[in-house]
Amino acid sequence: xxxxxxxxxxxxTEKGKYVELRCDPISGHTAxxxxxxxxxxxxxxxxxxxxxxxxxxxxxxxxxxxxVRPEGSVSTLKIQRTERGDSAVYLCASSINRxxxxxxxxxxxxxxxxxL
Amino acid sequence: xxxxxxxxxLLSVFKGAPVELKCNYSYSGSPELFWYVQYSRQRLQLLxxxxxxxxxxxxxxxxxxxxxxxxxKKPFAQEEDSAMYYCALSGRSGTYKYIxxxxxxxxxxx
Lengths: 116, 110
Description:
The complex is a heterodimer. Chain A is an all-beta fold. Chain A is 0% helix and 47% strand. Chain A is built from no helices and 11 strands. In chain A, strands 2, 4, 5, 6, 9, 10 and 11 form a 7-stranded mixed beta sheet that branches. The radius of gyration of chain A is 13 Å and the shape is globular.
């Protein structure tokens, strides 16, 4: 496909479980971002990668959250010991251009996480 | 603190009427501002950016540094403009590390 792909689209889990959310960016896009969108809120920045390395992880809420991008393409967001407050739509986005004033960030459809 | 405020959760207008979606920001520096839109069952996508001073789908937005505002305007609303609109501020220059507002749902009534 041509767009950013996220799996699963829906995930229901129990409190305390471990969850992985996957993002497949557009081919060739070096910048990859994760955002979280809670009900009634705008997207909130979590982390971004430039290539394989996390350039800025200041938005990760605590150490239960971790993300990797080992080969500079696919990224996985990992959440340990999930809590009900983690319930949200997790958005992934990618771009070939680092500058938002000239480039564009392309979003996926999101992974909806529900923690019971 | 850096912040984006969209005071209206919902805005309903009739087709052909003017539209103004409000956005105010708080930022200590030279702001880079954007409008994103999400149509029903579609992905979040860029509508316009202030630096381009462009008109997209009839929408324009002017950065007013004195009032710290970046309101989105369209003179004549169309039904296809119905969507969720988010104002965003680039929180770190040269990145897509955005600070988003809470969004305004625009409903254009026939």
